[in-house]
Amino acid sequence: MNKGIVLLAAGGTGGHVFPAEALAFKLKERGYSVHLVTDSRAERYAGKFPAEEIHVVPSATIGSKNPVAVARSLWTLWSGMRAAKRLIQRLKPVIVVGFGGYPTVPPLLAATRLGVASMLHEQNAVMGRANKALAPRVKAIAGGFLPESGDAFSDKTVATGNPVRPAILAAAEQPYVPSHPGEPFNLVVFGGSQGAQYFSKAMPTAISLLDDGLRARLRVTQQVRPEDMEMVSGCVAKLEMGADIAPFFNDMAERLAQAHLVICRSGASTVSEISLIGRPAILVPYPHALDHDQAANAAALAATGGAKVIPQSELSPERIASILSHVMNDPDKLSHMAAAAKLAGKPDAANLLADMVEAIAAGKTVSEFKRTRA
């Protein structure tokens, strides 16, 4: 029996699309049809998205102070809202759920104007600008790392955690197996586009500073930008070491499961996935984030002992080499970090978020939903 259509809206990055994908799978299991509104960037992530249809509506960010650019952005947003309104009137969804990013603005604005139930999911510990603009209008907010008290919107916030994809849940079933001296050591390095640029430059140099014995043990998976592929591949060839280098890995969940150490940025989805699988990490928050959300996300995992947070300004290739030299010969330390990270994971986040979506779609308030959880 089809319980109705749920319209999910997400910006075209993995951090926005992946939690939406996890929710979509749960809603499909519960008998809902799912449609996705996003932008063209999401094509690389949306291949496995269980949507009946993927829609693209016009959207824009208002980041310029140029009056002409602002006017153009406002016109694009207005056009997008009109397109989203027509889409919602045609699909008649029971609820519209936004996951952040500017492509969520037109459908959420249209939903609130049409009186359709609406809510947001904010992945980070600090609310993004699009979600912050929409927060006063929606009926409820689910938070990956947001607090349920002491915040301007805490009365409508539920701390659900960040839902993760089925592949991550499957990877979480694999226990951490430490690498002892003399055994292969799996190192996974990744980040967003700018994160990949930084690591592309830092990691080859750091690895070149290791002694031959340690370098021979390394098996590296590293995400790099397409324009950095030739440089990094050349460095790997000179170092004569085992490495998989690519702009994107479709099997990243399995690679994380096999990792002995992860070095990465601290986006919300990344922190949630590492926690759930339970792998030790060196987190390097993106230093130019407007709201410093990655630093706040990283702090949440570091507090459990599952990760070490190092600002990019303090993470030289020499320091990376020193860290690797120590931890590759200290499997007990990494095992303790893995266990601590696992304790921070929230494996039931997708189910809880799906419960909340159903409750808000049925007309319940956040207070009523919280009472059912008590």
Keywords:
374 residues, alpha/beta, 7-stranded parallel β-sheet, 6-stranded parallel β-sheet, 15 helices, 45% helix, globular
Explain how this protein is built:
This protein has 374 residues and is of the alpha/beta class. Helices cover 45% and strands 16% of the residues. The chain has helices at 14-29, 67-91, 105-114, 129-134, 166-171, 193-208, 212-217, 229-239, 252-258, 268-277, 293-302, 317-327, 331-343, 349-361, 366-373, and strands at residues 5-9, 33-38, 53-56, 95-98, 118-122, 140-143, 157-159, 185-190, 218-223, 242-246, 261-264, 281-283, 307-309. Strands 3-2-1-4-5-6-7 form a seven-stranded parallel sheet, with helices on both faces. Strands 10-9-8-11-12-13 form a six-stranded parallel sheet, sandwiched between helices. 49% of the residues are buried.
Report helical residue fraction: 40-55%
Annotation, overall tally of beta strands? 13
Low-confidence segments: none
Query: For the report, how would you describe the main beta sheet?
Result: 7 strands, parallel
Structural class call reads: alpha/beta
Integer average pLDDT? 89
Work out the strand percent. Answer: 15-25%
Order of helices and strands: EHEEHEHEHEEHEHHEHEHEHEHEHHHH
The dominant shape is globular
Function: Cell wall formation. Catalyzes the transfer of a GlcNAc subunit on undecaprenyl-pyrophosphoryl-MurNAc-pentapeptide (lipid intermediate I) to form undecaprenyl-pyrophosphoryl-MurNAc-(pentapeptide)GlcNAc (lipid intermediate II).
Domain Glycosyltransferase family 28 N-terminal: 6-142
Pfam families: Glyco_tran_28_C, Glyco_transf_28
EC number: 2.4.1.227
